Fold:
Amino acid sequence: MSVLVVGSTALDSIKTPVLENPRLLGGSASHAAVAASFFAPVKMVGIVGKDFPKKYVTLYKKHKIDLEGLQIADGETFHWSGEYELNMNKRRTLNTVLGVFETFTPHLPQQHKDSPYVLLANIAPSLQHHVLDQMNRPKFIVADTMDLWLNIALGDLLKLLKRVDAFVLNDSEAHLLTKETNIFPALKKIHKLGPKYVIIKKGEHGSVLSGPSGIFIAPAYPIKCVIDPTGAGDSFVGGMIGYLASVGGNVEKNLRRAIIHGSAVASFCCEGFGLSRTTRVTRKDIDARAKELEAMVRL
Amino acid sequence: MSVLVVGSTALDSIKTPVLENPRLLGGSASHAAVAASFFAPVKMVGIVGKDFPKKYVTLYKKHKIDLEGLQIADGETFHWSGEYELNMNKRRTLNTVLGVFETFTPHLPQQHKDSPYVLLANIAPSLQHHVLDQMNRPKFIVADTMDLWLNIALGDLLKLLKRVDAFVLNDSEAHLLTKETNIFPALKKIHKLGPKYVIIKKGEHGSVLSGPSGIFIAPAYPIKCVIDPTGAGDSFVGGMIGYLASVGGNVEKNLRRAIIHGSAVASFCCEGFGLSRTTRVTRKDIDARAKELEAMVRL
Structure:
């Protein structure tokens, strides 16, 4: 079954202590769509400017991503510049050019409206709502977010949480949302806001799923060297929903294994700048890491 | 089979953002011995002063800890005072009175020398050596340490690593020892120093075991509120070796489950000041949490 991915499509200029890379393919939808594409057919909805490099369109196409919902508008592509600290855990934004994103309204082509699996990747909650307004009863809806929306669009986000099956956020965002320093009371509070499933991402420390079957504590894949963690969270959630779409059936039953596969894709994302490493791996490589991860938690 | 625990026996005065508790029973050997006692008979070796409260001796005895190796010397008991920050992750030492510890030499009673399981809990590496010098070929030796010894007694510690089966340290100590920010390359480097098994403790993020069967990523038990994390690492390693001694047989086969049981004991330790919570639980309570932890990593 197919996955609809809506989010940002951007150019990222990323500085790490080791290297600097300008105008890489980035954005939550780009990372998530490529990650999901290893498992299932993907339809991507987003917007880019006339300056968007052709090679990146070719790259989407290489991953068989349906681009009918990708608007190409007059103006500049959304451009984020950021810098990582030495331990790669903290990043700061150097500059943001919204460009064509400023006036973006996601329009869903007719055949997108029946997508059974929907990933509302990180983007303004009002746009995430707008996508859901156009959908015909999807089977499973996941929403991701970022601290920015918790700070400037909390009302919209809280309304969104009542409309999604799963909500994904990182540990510092969970703290920001609930004021809880410990993630387990935080999970409880977030469930009360609506979502049946809550997934808290903890970077190198893995992730925690909370749902009707209780808590699942998932490890991150042990990579030797983080080159660039940008997009790892998007890759994680993209891989997760892609896996769910590929196996179909009962979400509850497959979600833990889906998270393991999401972690595997995220690990590749961190091993190169932007999407450079992710786009060079195969489903077989991902499955091999997922299998290794499964062995690392087996008693 | 029995466990020999050697380490510090102390009084701890602990300040957290919420409470202040003077002269609690503390020290690496106290925490580790009580933790191990839930699983197997424990012999403890340490030293206290004449000021050591009788109630704490009663408490050791309640846990059936063999105290023949506990020296009672003229002078003050080792006394540590420390303070935790709001998020309970960072602590700073306010004061240390070495007291009788200053001249401590661990003497092993005759029947201690054949103990099959030996835990060299956190104490000066020279004393850990001194214990091993007196032992008759134990089946399994675990050593714990702290940053202090990495800074002031690295030579002794490096020699010790060639004499132990397993080495336990936390993530910041692993960084201090190997200069690696990522724990997986750090594990590789530490194996080269001697130990067949290396276990890195990551506090609320669980622990990682590296050994001949590969990597095992163990979760920490999700507790709602950390009251006082002092001794959690000692409880973890004590519970782990206690479990190993209780099941006997092949260490390789049982180590992952032993780590899960160690995590369960450590979680109780964090839920009260000093040993106040740990000494009120039963083996049944610990097994229940271990079972919950196993369910949290099951796919």
The mean pLDDT of chain B is 96. Chain B touches chain A at residues 86-87, 181-185, 202, 204-206, 208, 214-217, 219, 222-226, 256-257, 260, 294-299 (CB under 8 Å). Residues 198 and 210 of chain B are 5 Å apart (CA to CA). The first strand of chain B starts at residue 3 and ends at 6.
